[in-house]
Amino acid sequence: MAEKKETKAKATKAKAAPKKVAAKKTTKAEVEAIDVAVAEAPKVEEVSPAQANPEKFLKEFDWHNYEEGIEQVEDKKLQEFEKLVAENFVDTLNDEVVTGEVVYLSDRDAIIDINAKSEGVVSLNEFRYNPDLKVGDKVEVLIDVREDATGQLILSHRKARVIKAWDRVNAAHDTGEIVNGFVKCRTKGGMIVDVFGIEAFLPGSQIDVKPIRDYDAYVSKTMEFKVVKINHEFKNVVVSHKALIEADIEEQKKEIIGQLEKGQVLEGTVKNITSYGVFIDLGGVDGLVHITDLSWSRINHPNEIVELDQKLNVVILDFDEDKSRIQLGLKQLSKHPWEALGEELKIGDKVKGKVVVIADYGAFIEVAEGVEGLIHVSEMSWSTHLRSAQDFVKVGDEVEAVVLTLDREDRKMSLGIKQLTPDPWTDITSKYPVGSKHSGIVRNFTNFGVFVELEEGIDGLIYISDLSWTKKIKHPSEFCNVGDNLDVVVLELDVDGRKLSLGHKQTTDNPWDKYEDDYGLDSVHTAEISEIVDKGATIEFNEDIVAFVPSRHLEKEDGKKLKKGESAEFKIIEFNKEFKRVVASHTAIFREEEAKNVKAAAKKVAASNSEKTTIGDVNEELQALKDKMDGKK
User: Fold this and answer.
1) Which of these, 83, 301, 485, 527, is most buried using a 10 Å CB contact count?
2) Are strands 371-376 and 412-416 parallel, antiparallel or unpaired?
3) Contact 549, 582 (CB under 8 A)
């Protein structure tokens, strides 16, 4: 029985014993807080049942419920203690930003009370932006190191600012809140802006609605921005100042465009200059003056007329309310130059001007501001051989010309330069009579001949057949080159048609006149087969005469045909001086001899009729001669 009671007592003692918790280092501040809590707890003055009647209390006491009660009391005390610690002390195990109070400042550090087990330390370098930091200031910090080698709690104000800054930046991006930023410096493509301590990127195109010419003017300025983009992966932030004013500008645009009228004159400021025109700021809305609407005169670039930030008056030519596009004009504010052109100017008058544009077909001359005339290339020289206008003038040249046509209604004028000199065809008959010899320059080729310039404005044509007496020419380039000097003879002259027919071969005697005597019909010459060609062969008697031998006329007396390189006698069977055609035959030589023999035999037979007694004898003799000839074929 005693053992049983002892065992039960031990079990009860074990249950009543509090659970062991890992020991924690209690600071002086924690002990003082607990003492204060205990001191402030309500005190009980009543006498308990155990004190009033101890024997009765022990006899009736329920030990089982007592043990459970002890456990409940201990748990309740523990919960109250944990609650007290949670309400008064910071959990240093969580990475969150907390607010602390500066309790002490040294030369290097600031001691911050964050209601933890101990105070934390922050380097004063993290407060460089706030040189007026003092004891009692509230600051945000992040627990950087829970305990260093000395057991000290290390805090970071800079990391806390970064975390809070990212929270503020993200909130500003989500809500569209306008934030203030400090422009720190320039960078490639834009600026670096400090927003809540975070370096954000401000693209150059997002600084203002107008092009920025001086980025340095924005450095070290505090401006308002809108967070337009955040890259959480790379921790990049993009801000815009332009976005803040675009909405207001859009409203201004609609209001201004609603009041616009065509022909209205407004004052504006040159905002941007491009190669195709000028953008004008009309006070919240932009308009474009195309380069063709800047001046009545031709210009190469708008900066010849205007400059940036220049104020000027412009007239509204057209506008698009839907797309908010406004077309402006500057030259329309002045009278059209053609309207100011004097009435005294007429066809045939001489004018002076500057070459402003050159094309292949001619040049445009500005005879007055905004008034141009065209000199066609055909009116630049009396020569009928057309060249490029650049051969005569260049841009910027001052030239004199004659007015050929004048249309004030269509504002067109044609001019001429060649009219300032006499027409060379005026006395053409006396200078270049038919049969006269001259020297000229080859200017151009055609498939049928060569154009030769005798002087400026006088060109003549040499047909391909009049280039050489002897050579067969397929194209003039086989005979001469452009720029060569050629001697010519005037063959024909058409004054009304301004045409001159020339000949080159006529400057020398026709060698075929002599060849006609030397290589006349039936003449015999010795030559060598030079080439075997289609349907025959060719032989060369000299450098000019190449004769053709038909295939059937290549046969020799033994029945074989002549081969290339073989020499023989040839008889001229055709000679055409006009077409330079010579045909020869080798076969005709021995065939002619045979024909002579036949004639001789016939005469012999006729002469000896008296000696022959019968017709059969004569026939026999003729048959024998015929057989002899047939045997040689």
Assistant:
1) 527
2) parallel
3) no
Under DSSP, the state recorded for 147 is S
Span 324-371, pLDDT tens digits: 678 999 988 888 888 777 778 889 889 999 998 888 889 999 888 888
Q: Give 497's contacts (C-beta < 8 A, 6+ positions apart).
A: none
pTM (predicted TM-score): 0.42
Asked whether the CA dihedral 248, 253, 258, 259 is positive or negative, the reply is positive
Is the distance from CB of 490 to CB of 432 less than 8 angstroms? yes
Max CA distance (Å), the chain: 212
Q: E-strand spans in 114-252?
A: 120-123, 138-145, 153-156, 178-187, 190-195, 198-203, 222-231, 236-240
Q: Which residue has the tokens 């010579």?
A: 582
DSSP secondary structure letters along 533-584: ETTEEEEESSSS-EEEEEGGGSB-TTS-B--TT-EEEEEEEEEETTTTEEEE
Alpha-carbon distance of 597 to 64, in angstroms, equals 175
Each residue's pLDDT tens digit, 478-517: 899 998 999 999 999 888 888 889 999 888 888 777 787 7
State both tokens at 7. 């065992």
Q: How far apart are CA 586 and CA 76, in angstroms?
A: 148
Least confident piece of the model among 44-48, 173-177, 200-204 = 44-48
